[in-house]
Amino acid sequence: MKYAVIAIVWALSLYWAMGEAFTAGYEQGYVNGKQRAEITEEQVLQVCTAWWFGEGNPRAMQAINQYCERNKQ
After folding, report:
1. How high is the pLDDT of residue 70?
2. pLDDT at 56
3. Helix 41-53 and helix 58-72: axis angle, to 10°?
4. Do residues 49 and 60 make contact, with C-beta atoms less than 8 angstroms apart?
5. CB-based contact 46:64 (threshold 8 Å)
6. What residues does each domain of the chain span?
7. Which residues of the chain have pLDDT under 50?
8. How many CB atoms lie within 10 A of CB 60?
């Protein structure tokens, strides 16, 4: 009987600890994922132009600068 109570208490504490760890990990992953998903328009423009014109291509920087100049006016 004594060992059954110890086993039940151990199982419940393990269940509680796993639940806490899962919740903390889920919350952290949710926050990190949300921050990555919420990128600015400028970041989108940089990624798209780098993809379209090729990484480090001067045409990509020229397109970004033209876009920024149009938005400032």
Report:
1. 80
2. 64
3. 150
4. yes
5. yes
6. 1-38, 39-73
7. none
8. 19
- Distance CA(64)–CA(73), nearest Å, equals 15
Q: Which two tokens stand for residue 58?
A: 């001067």
**And the tokens for 73?**
């006016």
Residue with tokens 């796993």: 18
CB 53 within 8 A of CB 59: yes
* Predicted TM-score of the model (pTM): 0.36
Given this model, what pLDDT does residue 45 score?
73
Residues in the chain: 73
State pLDDT tens for residues 26-43. 888 888 887 777 777 777
15, 30 contact by CB (below 8 A): no
From residue 44, alpha-carbon distances to 32, 35, 60, 61 in Å are 18, 14, 13, 13
The answer to whether 63 and 49 have CB atoms below 8 angstroms apart is yes
